[in-house]
Structures are given as structure tokens and as C-alpha cells.
Amino acid sequence: MNNTQNSSDWNAFDFHHYANQWYSSMIPEDREMIVFLVNELKSRGFKFGYESLDLVADVGTGPNLFPAMIFSQIAKKIHLIEYTQNGVKYLQEVLNNFKDKRSIHQRELWKKYGQKLCEIMSLDKDLLSIVSKKAQVVEGDIFKLEENAYDLVSSFFATESISDNTKTFVNSIESLLRSVKPGGIFITAHMLESEGYPAGLGTFFPSVPLKKSDLEKIFRSSLRVGDFKIKSFENTDITTRPRAGYEGTALVIGTVKNINSE
Ligand SMILES: C[S@@+](CC[C@H](N)C(=O)[O-])C[C@H]1O[C@@H](n2cnc3c(N)ncnc32)[C@H](O)[C@@H]1O
Questions:
Q1: Is the entire prediction scored with pTM above 0.90?
Q2: Domain segments of the chain: what residues?
Q3: Exposed (0-12), middle (13-18) or buried (19+): which is 106, by Cβ within 10 Å?
Q4: 7-229+241-261 has which fold?
Q5: Which of 118, 110, 163 is nearest to 141 (CA)?
Q6: Ligand 1 contact via 194 beta carbon (within 6 Å)
Q7: Best residue among 3, 22, 161, 168 to mutate for probing ligand 1, ranked by most atoms within 8 Å of CB
Q8: What's the gap in Å between 58 CA and the centre of ligand 1?
Q9: How far, in Å, CA of 126 to CA of 211, rounded?
Q10: pLDDT per residue rounded down to tens, the chain (262 residues)
């Protein structure tokens, strides 16, 4: 099967519903993943509160601001690259302080999520306000990213969740890797074994049912990847993420090869 959602299908994606379902509280495996990511960044020499990177991109941001909140502590500027107009609108309404009831609710949700992140990162900051100042919402396509543009690129739960075709998944990873400057960092988060998912009443979006071993093979065989590490996080309560087949998540972190080391 080769089912990649086209842009009109994505209009059915309910960004508010998705955020309420998955980011109203910190799901246990997301917490574990965030703790792992924070420790990995520290072990790579990053200090939270010091803007050591000029430009970071999070691709397929949708209604998830936690990656940007973490990167706001190590970067001067962040591009939130989102494909759909509804996703762009969601992010602009949350970050630009829109006064309608739904946006106020989402801002409250992300303020609370930011406080949980602060506990993990040992910070006392309003991460949502910081992201509002540093982030620029950019309409864009994961398959058409600018090459060698970013010091760090991340994509959370997007690459495997926009199609059910493994080749499309690999192409999206290769495009992400090309957008990272030589020597820069990539971070990707994935749902494991997901067979598709809802994002609003009566909707169904495709997914590539990945195993950790698939990720290992794909990243090992990419010519742009220098070092990388993969860690998986098991789902222990299926009610928290109602996705058929879903077993948990995996985070990949690594560096893109330096031109000199090729
Ligand atoms: C499952 S959601 C994940 C959202 C979010 N990053 C998260 O962690 O929950 C998939 C996201 O990918 C976006 N997307 C779909 N096709 C895309 C494309 N070609 N390029 C970039 N983003 C895309 C969707 O609009 C949606 O926001």
C-alpha cells in the first residue's frame, strides 16, 4: 500500500483535539523520552539557558510545542515548519496570544506542560513565552526543506505518521538529514508499530508500523549520518495513546557527518 495523505486530507486533522488527547498531561513514555533527550543534550555539552545554536528547526510541529520548549534553552531562533494551514493557524494562535476560548485553553495546556519540562530540566522559566519570542511558524514540506540550513533539526512523531509507505518514510528522513549543516544534530521521535491513528472524530491518518530494528537499519545505512543512538520507550497503558498496534516510542539522536570526515 502507498497511502500518503494529501494536503486536502490534512484539513480534517483536528489540531486542538490531538493536543487535548496527547498533551493535556505528560504521558509516561513521553516523560521518559524527554528525560533521555535532556540528558543526551547535556552529555553533548549543551547548557540550558545558553544560546549556543543559531538556528534550529522542528519539522511537522503540528500541535506539539515540547520540542521547541526544550530547544528554546539552547537556541537563538527556532523555525516551526508545518505543512498544513490548520497546523500553522494552531501554532500562530497559541504563540501570538489569540484571545478566543480555544486558544486560551491551548495556551494553558502548554503553560502546564512547560512547568513539567522545567521540573525535568531544573529550570524556573515561562517556556511558552520564551518560545513565542524565539519561534517563527513557517509553512513548509518535510520533503522540500532547505539543505544545510540548520544547526539542529528535529521531527517528532511526523516522519512515520504521514504515510504508510516505508520508502516515503526513508525519503522524509533523508530530506531532514540534508537540511542539517555538516556536523549538526538531528533528533527524530517515532511511534513504534502504529498502524494508523485518529486526529478528531471519524478521522484516520496513516502510519508506517516501525520496529526499533527498522530504525537501526535505516539510520545505519544513511550516508549522511555520523554517530547516532536510538532508545525505545515502552507503552504500559494503551488508554494513553489509542493507536492500533502501538507499542511505544523511540528517539533517535545523532550528528550529520562533517564534510572533512567524509
Ligand atoms: C502525527 S502529527 C505529529 C505532530 C507533532 N509533531 C507531535 O509530535 O505530536 C503529524 C504532523 O505532520 C504534519 N505533516 C504532514 N505532512 C507533512 C509534510 N509533508 N511536511 C511537514 N509536515 C507534515 C501534519 O500536519 C502534522 O502536524
A1: yes
A2: 7-229+241-261
A3: buried
A4: Rossmann fold (3.40.50)
A5: 163
A6: no
A7: 161
A8: 10
A9: 36
A10: 445 665 558 889 999 999 999 999 999 999 999 999 999 999 999 999 999 999 999 999 999 999 999 999 999 999 999 999 999 999 999 999 888 999 999 999 999 999 999 999 999 999 999 999 999 999 999 999 999 999 999 999 999 999 999 999 999 999 999 999 999 999 999 999 999 999 998 899 999 999 999 999 999 999 999 999 999 998 887 777 767 888 899 999 999 998 655 4
User: Amino acid identity, residue 255?
Assistant: T
CA atoms within 13 A on the CB side of 131: 28
3-state secondary structure of 84: coil
| Nine-digit cell string for 54 | 543559531
Compute the distance between CA of residue 22 and CA of residue 89 in angstroms, rounded to an integer.
19
